[in-house]
Amino acid sequence: MYTKNQLLEVEITDITNEGEGVGKIDGYTFFIKDAMIGDTVRFIVTKVKKNYGYGKVMEILKRSPFRIEAPCVQAKRCGGCQIQEMAYDSQLVFKRNKVLNNLVRLGGFDRDRIERIMEPVIGMDGEPFRYRNKAQFPIGYNKEGELIVGFYAGRTHAIIPVSDCLLGCEENKDILDIILDWMKQYDIPAYDETSNKGVVRHVLIRKGFTSNEIMVCIVVNSNRLPHQNELINMLGSYEGLKSISYSVNKDDTNVIMGDNYHTIFGSDTITDSIGDLKFKISPLSFYQVNPMQTKKLYEKALSYADLNGEETVWDLYCGIGTISLFLAQKAKQVYGVEIIPQAIEDAKNNAKLNNFTNAEFFVGKAEEVTDRIWNEYGDKKDDEKAYEMTHPDVIVVDPPRKGCDELCINTMLKMDPKRIVYVSCDSATLARDLKLLCEGGYELISVCPCDMFPNTIHVETVVQLSKGDIDRDSSERKSIAKTDDIGMISGYNKGNKAPETTNVKIDFSLENLDLSELRGKATYEQIKDYVSEQTGFRVSTLYISQVKRKCGLEVGESYNKPKSEDAKQPQCTPEKEAAIMQALRHYGMI
Length: 590
Ligand code: SAH
Description:
Elements: E1 7-15, E2 21-25, E3 28-33, E4 40-48, E5 52-62, H1 88-105, H2 111-117, E6 134-141, E7 147-152, E8 159-161, H3 171-185, E9 200-207, E10 214-220, H4 228-235, E11 241-248, E12 262-266, E13 270-274, E14 277-281, H5 291-305, E15 312-316, H6 322-328, E16 333-338, H7 341-353, E17 359-363, H8 366-377, H9 384-390, E18 394-397, H10 406-415, E19 419-424, H11 427-439, E20 443-450, E21 460-466, H12 472-475, H13 515-518, H14 524-535, H15 541-550, H16 574-586
Parallel strand pairs: 3-5, 10-11, 15-16, 15-18, 16-17, 18-19
Antiparallel strand pairs: 1-2, 1-4, 2-3, 4-5, 6-7, 6-9, 7-8, 9-10, 11-12, 13-14, 19-21, 20-21
The protein binds S-adenosyl-L-homocysteine.
């Protein structure tokens, strides 16, 4: 049995959905923080359970080929970026596997089918940094009692001082410096969680990437913002600053924002565009954080909705109506539902701003609003509007991490739309909900992961479900292999992006993100060494090329191809064939 604080060494052969490395010693599994699949590490045991334990890397003995230097010095300590040390291409593979594994394990879907219908992960073009349009920085004190701003360390509320987070925009640092100066100059204390005393809890900064408009909202544990005019004087002239507000949150809670906000400078909202549409965003409204990827995500959702202008569509969990208005461009009528009243105010204003008259919004819980409308109008066949509303052609849902309420799923099933488009930020709850929808008669047609959150373990997924006539030609994904035998990321461009339009089969078994599958193309020498180490057999290049050919792998022309059909060549024995196959599997080549 292992003990806490013991130092051990292990090869990391897998990765969890949370990004921890997995290593096995004599059948006992360790989950190791900061370890990357492909590393060999020395680690300290931090927790021991009966069948598994936890650890933390002390030293990397052999670097994984998927490891890169993290550009942020705080990457290890900060809880924000869990996989910044993983090359971006590998991150996309990790995310694809996460979605796939959740759908198979939690949703009960057939692995082969999911592999067939899953589109390539939509990755970011260019550098996967500086993409966030919003950041919420906690403010507190360090051990020396100095005021600090930053992010929480993983799983704790210790603040790691980072004012220039590389995921956020460059203005954040300047703005935070001004706010810290203001607090110091006017003796405004930061909030202390343990005593529930102090004033400033968090600073929210949001930037419209297309408009360059900036919003700052200070979350305070007091009824008013002290020295607000002084703050306006110090911050109001910052370039692009369009709105300063404060939000009162006096609760002993992890929830960051209060229920309301008060604007003290400029306007209540900032504006941003996605595609051809403009949106006004207020401090409390949800707005997707990665604008470059949001456009791609919404376009995918819109293509899955497959509208021709005649449809009635529901957009449940609609936020400020972003997806609703994307849909309204191509639908007859869209209905949006959202729980936050201010977001619905924004949604209505956004519909006006973009001259839409075919979008209507409801405040309330999606499950309650849809249930109420179904009960009230579901059987009113003579009333055209009531009928269309309760029998939509398409329902789009984009719930928070906890997924859809079961009542909501049941009402969706009663409304019986032809298509359902599910946008999800948590593939575990997505899998659970898809299972229910498919048990209710829907078929999963397409799945497309989208990387909204590079360098983190999170992944967004868009899914299309259909009922009735399914256009097989367009629905079955045309995922044709680019037939090189590199297991890992054969399909992706060598740069950072996974092409959106080219369908690429990622050619490895996705049982887990197994190390062997990440290793790629092994040389003949590596295969020989592996076979010899594992089995003691010595195998020739000829035998390896025979087995590779048998497995459908490309073999260089010069590799011992028989000169004519009847040429006599020694043939690989079954034992050696099995040993070579094992090596090919180990290197992810089959
Ligand atoms: N589709 C929007 C928002 C998605 S985020 C966009 O892309 O911007 C999920 C939204 O669901 C949030 O706006 C949240 O406030 C809202 N929400 C959470 N629980 C809800 C519920 N039970 N009913 C309706 N909306 C809810």
